[in-house]
Amino acid sequence: MGITSGLVLYAVFWFMTFLVVIPIRLKTQGESGEIVPGTHAGSPQEHNLKRKAWITTGIAFVIWAIVATVILTETITVDDIARWTKFENRGG
Questions:
Q1: How many CA atoms are closer than 13 Å to the CA of 29, on its beta-carbon side?
Q2: Which residues lie below 8 Å from residue 72, measured CB to CB, with a gap of 6+?
Q3: Residues of the chain above pLDDT 70, percent
Q4: pLDDT in tens, 10-38
Q5: What is the average pLDDT across 31-48?
């Protein structure tokens, strides 16, 4: 795995994790009862995006480190996955 593919893989894990972390402990304006005029009741009261971005960075790094280790050490190869899924290249 090259540097570029490693960075792309990390970015994919980061954004996927971020989309999971965003709604955790989110308090909406409707739940707090203080709806700002011109906004939707489902708008966040406090979003804490900076904190959630740091949490996402840590979680994504751990996931990326595990997957990168598996790829670099060839613990699991493409041939292994093909064998597990019973998919074989039958040639043309």
A1: 11
A2: 1
A3: 93
A4: 999 999 999 999 999 888 888 888 888 89
A5: 86
Q: Would you give the end-to-end CA distance of the chain in angstroms?
A: 28
Q: What is the pLDDT of residue 92?
A: 47
For helices 3-21 and 49-73, the axis angle rounded to 10 degrees is: 140
Could you count the other beta carbons within 10 Å of the beta carbon of residue 64? 19
Tally Cβ neighbours within 10 Å of residue 22. 15
Residue type at 73 in one-letter notation: T
* Every domain of the chain and the residues it spans: 3-84
Euclidean distance between CA atoms 80 and 51, whole angstroms? 39
Residue 24 and residue 3: Cα distance in Å, rounded?
32
The model carries a pTM of 0.75
